[in-house]
Every structure is written in C-alpha cells, then in structure tokens.
Amino acid sequence: MPQKRVNATRMELLRLRRRTTLARKGHKLLKDKLDGLIQRILRIVAEHRRLSGRLEEELAEIFQRLVLSSAQTDPGMLYAAALLPTCRSGVDISLQNIMGVKIPKYELKTKGEPLSYGFADTSAELDASLIKFKETLPKLVQLAEFNKAILVLASQIIEIKRRVNALEYILIPELEASVRFIRMKLAEMERSTTVSLLKIKDIVRAR
C-alpha cells in the first residue's frame, strides 16, 4: 500500500510528481522505439521470406546439376577437380545502427574463379553448377545477415516490451497511487488545520 511507503509531505508530493512525469516520458519513448523496431523486423522478415523462396529454387537447380555432373563425370576426375579450387571467399562484418540497436552487416569478399580445372574431362553441368553457386553465394550471405538481424531485433523487442510493461503496469500506477495518497493526506491535514483554527477562533471570540 502507498501509505506504508511514502511520507505525506509537499516535498515528497513534488518529487513523486516529477518521477511520474519522467516515467511517462520514458514510457512513451520506449513505446515509440518498440513500435519502430517491430515495423523494421516485419520488413526484414518479409525480405527474408522472399529471398528464401528464391534461394530454394536456385539451390535446387544447383544440386540437380551437381547430381547430373556426378553421373556424367568419372568419380576420380570429379574428385580431382574438387581439389583444385582457386576461388577464396570471406565475409567482412560491420555494425549498422537501427534505432539504437547494433545489427551486424555482412559483406562477401571473393577472390579467384571457381573453374580452375581442365574442361576436357568434366561435364558442362559441373561448370554451370559452380558458376551458378558463385552467383548465389552473395544471396546466402544476405540471408545469414537477415537471420542475425531478426534474432538481435527480436531479443531487443522482448527486452523493451518487458520494460514498457513494467512502466505501464507497475511503476507508473504505483507512483500515481502514491501521489493520490499524499494529496488525500494533505487535504485531510488541511481540513483538520482549518477546523482547529475555526475552533480556536470561536474560543477567542467567546472570551
């Protein structure tokens, strides 16, 4: 109960009013941030879904070509070709700021060419699958970036939602209840003082 935790003084009333005002402002800022992050994550999820659909088709084509190439190429030659890659790939990671949330951004770096073997003893399907995979690789990196962004944003949304609920349903109601309690007590004290003054005034007049 508020009356067990606060002193019914005007100074305390002013302090609690200031805290209530700050809590309401903080609640609004967090609520606005929460709404913005939710809108952003929904856009990323939509982009993730579209990209996943395209990649599913492209990877299915790549694996189909690899299966055909394995059937058309001598296993020894296929193994030898796999041991001669000159293409190297890596990912540079930086951070981008989304409404105060740090989101990793991935940038693919590649060097060399995937076709580093002789074409005489390998099938055209193998060549096509490797070229297609090189074209698809940036999209896979982008999909990984979307996955990480969704995880980070979802974590922040859960945390901010918890803080918004704490302000909305616990702190602000408690502060408002304390303010009402002090105002009631001060009003009672003022009425009691007024009654006492009137009694004193009546006594003085009676003399």
Keyword list:
Helix Hairpins, 3 helices, 11% strand, 2 strands, mainly alpha, 207 residues
Molecular structure report:
Helices cover 74% and strands 11% of the residues. The protein has 207 residues and is mainly alpha-helical. The protein has a single domain (2-200), classed as Helix Hairpins (Orthogonal Bundle). It has a two-stranded antiparallel ribbon with strand order 1-2. A hairpin with a 2-residue loop joins strand 1 (88-98) and strand 2 (101-111). The chain is rod-shaped and about 125 Å long.
Q: Provide the gyration radius in Å.
A: 35 Å
Let me know the average pLDDT: 84
Estimate the helix proportion, in percent. Answer: over 70%
The total count of helices amounts to: 3
The CATH topology annotation reads as Helix Hairpins
Give the name of the CATH architecture: Orthogonal Bundle
**Low-confidence runs (pLDDT<50, min 5 residues)?**
none
Distance between the termini: 46 Å
Largest sheet: 2 strands, antiparallel
Strand order of the largest sheet: 1-2
Shape: rod-shaped
Number of domains: 1
Q: Helix/strand/pairing class, anyone? A: mainly alpha
Percent of residues in beta strands? Answer: 5-15%
Q: Give a count of the beta strands, DSSP E runs of length 2 or more.
A: 2
Task: Please provide the ordered H/E string of secondary-structure elements.
Answer: HHEEH
